[in-house]
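Notebook entry, structure prediction.
Reason for the run: the old model in the group folder had no record of what sequence produced it. Starting over properly, with the input documented here first.
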Amino acid sequence: MARIARQAAPEGVYYIRQMGNENRDLFVSDVDRTKFLELIKESKRKYGFKLYAYCLEKSNAYHLVIHANGSDLSMIMKSLNIAYAMYIRSDKPLFKDRYKSEQILTKCDFDKICSEVVCNKVIGSCFNSESELCDKDDPFKTECKSCIKSSEEALVKLREIAEIERRPLELLLKDKDRRNALIVEFRKTSLLSLKDIGELFGGLSESSVCKILKSSL
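New structure, fully documented this time:
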């Protein structure tokens, strides 16, 4: 079956994860990692994207936080991975499947993910000493001061929407198209976690919320 082309917002901010193939590590030494950083610099000059955090794992993966900045994310990643594969010249596949991408929709999530990548809170040991490679501006400009900050505030807002649309909240949630549109809206305008949003919209799992968000991209 042919792969479905991924749709990415040209002004979106993304958390990228790429795994190496089990038969061949991505980075054998810091020489390889330094070369990969040089390729990122070349790619930034070519495509004009912005890089806010990165981690080249000591094991077999890399992590990037990228603002597409008007460019095609798939072209950026394809170009970067092909250039690195040409440098390695491995007789075995270098990458395990396609890269994973998750759009970052709020400043709160952006700050959290960048911190985790740079400080290795989740990832573990990594190579990311060249801080000047990263851009310093804020892709979200200013933090939303009117964002919904709690589940209680979100429930009040959701009930207000149901009242405006003149239907009971239960019926609003049963309308999947409208419910999914509201999930995307609340993700952008609140500081709620995926779990909180799932509970707000009828007890959905975090994975179900993720699928709804990704299908909207």
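Summary: DSSP finds eight helices and five strands in the chain.
The old model has been moved to the deprecated folder.
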